[in-house]
């Protein structure tokens, strides 16, 4: 038995590299074999499970959003927060130097839900601003849509700051935690915090613009149908 502890790097990556090195440089006598065992096996099994859970979570989020709002373009707009969350999570993971682990994967999954939540808040306010004007069927000009989008996006600022501010303030201390369980909490908090911060910019900038363009497209299509039906 050769026993060792791995520090300052991913345990699964170390085992994989060690296996390659041993296979290339160690010639075993006839009848001998090498087996690798330890805590890394638990992480390998967890990662295999997460490879199924990860895309399943994304699919479930998309399906729930579509079933709730019944509008495919709006669902896609809300879903834009997920790529933003991935980018922000990866940025903070690299910034803090965390390798992929079960805790990091769990952080990404949690981040998707939080980022989608803020996207929903934005779209709800935008849709309500349109509805207060009688809906897209009652709006006559693209300027009215522009005014509604500006109104909805500005109204969303306060609940957005409250929602994200409380989350960010709760996560920041976890990044520098030193107590029991800190080795799991720190890598989990990094992608959540980064994902929320970057996804927020995607939500604040892209969703109102895309919503405006989509409603303008619907307005033009409605006018085209009306003109086509006029004798």
Q: Roughly what percent helix? A: over 70%
Instruction: Catalogue the unreliable spans.
Output: none
Tally of separate helices: 8
Instruction: Summarize the main sheet.
Output: none
Structural class: mainly alpha
Q: Into which percentage range does the β-strand content fall?
A: under 5%
Order of helices and strands: HHHHHHHH
Query: What is the CA-based Rg, rounded?
Result: 25 Å
Global mean pLDDT: 82
N-C termini distance: 90 Å
Q: Can you count the beta strands?
A: 0
Shape: elongated
Q: Please, could you describe this protein's structure?
A:
The protein has 231 residues and is mainly α. The chain has eight helices and no strands. Helix 4 packs antiparallel against helix 8, helix 5 packs parallel to helix 8 and helix 6 packs antiparallel against helix 8. The N and C termini lie far apart (90 Å).
Keywords:
single chain, 231 residues, mainly alpha
Topology, pairings included?
Elements: H1 11-25, H2 40-69, H3 72-79, H4 81-96, H5 102-131, H6 142-155, H7 157-175, H8 182-229
Short synopsis of the structure:
The protein is mainly alpha-helical and 231 residues long. The protein has helices at 11-25, 40-69, 72-79, 81-96, 102-131, 142-155, 157-175, 182-229. The termini are far apart.
């Amino acid at each position: 038995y050769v026993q060792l502890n791995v520090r300052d790097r991913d345990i699964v990556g170390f085992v994989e590299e060690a296996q390659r090195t041993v296979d290339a440089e160690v010639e075993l006598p006839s009848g001998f074999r090498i087996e690798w065992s330890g805590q890394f096996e638990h992480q390998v099994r967890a990662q295999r499970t997460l490879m199924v859970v990860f895309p399943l979570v994304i699919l479930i989020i998309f399906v729930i959003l579509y079933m709730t709002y019944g509008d495919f373009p709006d669902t896609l707009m809300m879903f834009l927060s997920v790529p933003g969350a991935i980018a922000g999570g990866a940025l903070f993971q690299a910034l803090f130097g965390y390798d992929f682990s079960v805790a990091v994967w769990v952080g990404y999954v949690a981040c998707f839900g939080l980022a989608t939540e803020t996207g929903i808040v934005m779209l709800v306010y935008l849709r309500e601003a349109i509805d207060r004007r009688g809906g897209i069927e009652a709006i006559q000009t693209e300027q009215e849509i522009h005014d509604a989008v500006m109104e909805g996006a500005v109204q969303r600022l306060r609940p957005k700051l409250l929602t994200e501010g409380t989350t960010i303030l709760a996560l920041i201390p976890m990044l520098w935690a030193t107590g029991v369980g800190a080795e799991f909490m720190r890598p989990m908090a990094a992608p959540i915090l980064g994902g929320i911060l970057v996804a927020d910019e995607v939500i604040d900038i892209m969703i109102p613009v895309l919503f405006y363009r989509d409603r303008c497209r619907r307005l033009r299509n409605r006018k085209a149908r009306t003109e086509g039906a006029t004798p």
